[in-house]
Amino acid sequence: MGAIPTQRETVFRAPDTPAHGGAALHTVVRTTLPGGPLAPGAARRFVRAALSAWAEAAEPDTFTERLADDVLVVVSELVTNAVVHAGTDVDIVCRLHEGEDEPPGFLVEVSDHHPSRPVREDATERTYGIPEYGRGLRLVGALSRAWGITYRTATKTVWAQLPLDGAPAAEDGIEACAAEGTLECGPSPAEILGPDSTPYTEPGRGVPDRDWRGRGALSFLAEASDLLAGQLDEDLVAALTGQLLVPRLADWCAVWLEDEATGWHGPETAVATGPRLARVWHGSENRIEELRRVLEKDPPRLPESVRSRAVPVPWPGEALGPRGATGAALAYRLIAGGRPLGTLVIGRAGLLRFPDEVTGLVEDLSRRVALAIGAARQYARQATISRVLQRGLLPGAVAEIPGVSSALVYEPCDKGGPSGDFYDLFPAGHGRWCFALGDVQGKGPEAAVVIGLARPWLRLLAREGYAVPDVLDRLNQLLLDDATEAADAAARALVAAGAPVPVADGGPHARFLSLLYGELIPFEGGVRCTLASAGHPLPLLLGPDGDVRVVAQPQTLLGVVEDVTYGCETFELRSGDTLLCVTDGVTERRSGSRQFDDGDGLAAALAGCAGLSAQLIAERIRTLVHEFGAKPPEDDLALLVLRAE
């Protein structure tokens, strides 16, 4: 999965009137994030970076740890609500208020572009009294000096002001976020989530004050967000959810996931496979299997109109033994971006009903779980697409050449996306074999497009009998023509949209390719090799005596210059001679300021391989490249070894 794009601006100015009115001198940062599951985590990183920058420039102790925690919770809640309820791009503006007309403070504005909230289809009374928008805005209200919502044309902005001293605004502190119910058995969730002991107590009482107990719930949600945000496997998200909830808020929990696969019953009918029970977790492990068996028989069936609110479901008493004969169970739909992803069910023995305090807290957690599952599925889809693309862009197997042994090392840096490196070794007919090692500028879809053009054309031109220079000439023209057509199409789209057409500058539509391409013709006693390098690291020839020499001349990249004419070199590989071809992931492997090929490092490494087989040479060069730097390689790595027997 790629990084989320952001635009960031830091200015000192008298700003436009903010969403809630007023004007003063501010430090401002802003960004726009795609409205997907990764947005809350990206928003927290963005705001954390802004706070760090401001803290370095401010007086000591201006930005307390408590203020940073409160700001991150507010931003996370506002962005999460925007993603869940709107699903559009999210605009974030943070202003550091430094005026003298009112106390210093921190202003957060989160805007979405959903024209209106959908009308709820179920008019039934809410069983547990949690407002439709959940606890998120209550948390914001409790932590803020002031907050509000401003509606504009096709835009809704929720803003919140936080005092720099981090003091709670509401008299009831964070307790305002929850109803007054407490668990009929055992301690309250705030006591469970909070520390065992604390010096902060209400006057005359030996219990933690409301602010401290409420902050336990906030810490729980913040830690859950950080834990879930980095997971890229939906089953692992389900497992972590169980460990977060049990035993702190429930005796057991279960997570059902809606499978995206469909089963076909005829050419025109697709039937969803239905939910699968991905995870069951119980405080006592000897109850898990029996509980799973009972729950699989009767999955929860929630009305389509239910969004994230809690819905009572039957108690699976037969699976929980005498101590769990009675209890309360609640189900939450897991929805992200308007799409149902699954269902979360929690249960606690000995209760007639869950208190509102718990239902609201788990509702908040369910939103985070849904976003994490959505992000994991998006990553899985992209990884699947990348694997399919990669299989289509590379040969299924390399050809065997009479009198020549070959070895290949291919290691894409990004395991989840198409690599920019490619290779090929194929028969061209009439006793000829051809090989290629290329490196496309960039990675991902753009690289896949270029490789998808280059590799089939290389094979076609070679099998049509074109010589090595002619193949490069024609491939160069093909890339230039394709880039021109792509740029023209983009320009027409901009003109149709009324936008100015940028001046051509070799930008995103330029498709550059470095390529080493050669032809092999076996003969009695050796192999005749003709090759050419177009902007590629030059190949090296290793003799039986350990002598190493360069066997090509540097030439221009493909796809850069019109009407360029490419040349080639021809030489013979005799018994024991070895040809080494690499991409720049080998030559430019870094260790601090040094590169692997500095001072002819690659040639020195190859000289030490005299007498080894092709496979051993490939493995030795690969090992030396990896050991050269302490960090993992930051570029794709490919090398091809051809040895005359």
Structure description:
With 645 residues, this protein is α+β, with helices and mostly antiparallel strands. The protein is built from 13 helices and 25 strands. It has helices at 39-57, 65-85, 136-143, 189-193, 210-229, 234-245, 288-297, 356-393, 444-463, 468-496, 584-587, 601-607, 614-628; strands spanning 11-13, 26-33, 90-97, 105-112, 146-152, 155-163, 252-258, 262-264, 270-272, 275-282, 311-312, 327-336, 339-349, 404-411, 421-429, 432-440, 513-523, 526-534, 540-542, 548-550, 569-574, 578-582, 590-591, 594-595, 637-644. A six-stranded antiparallel beta sheet has the order 1-2-3-4-6-5, covered by helices on one side. Helix 5 packs parallel to helix 8, helix 6 runs antiparallel to helix 8 (356-393) and helix 8 (356-393) runs parallel beside helix 9 (444-463). It is elongated, with a radius of gyration of 32 Å. The chain starts with 10 loop residues before the first strand and ends with a strand.
Instruction: Kindly estimate the percentage of residues that lie in beta strands according to DSSP.
Output: 25-35%
Give the end-to-end Cα distance, rounded to a whole number of Å. 44 Å
Strand order of the largest sheet: 1-2-3-4-6-5
Number of strands: 25
Average pLDDT figure = 77
Shape by Cα distribution: elongated
What structural class do the secondary elements suggest? alpha+beta
Biggest sheet layout: 6 strands, antiparallel
Uncertain regions spanning at least 5 consecutive residues = 1-25, 116-135, 168-191, 194-209, 262-272, 503-509
Helical stretch tally: 13
Assign a percent range to the helix content. Answer: 25-40%
From the alpha carbons, calculate the radius of gyration and give it in angstroms: 32 Å
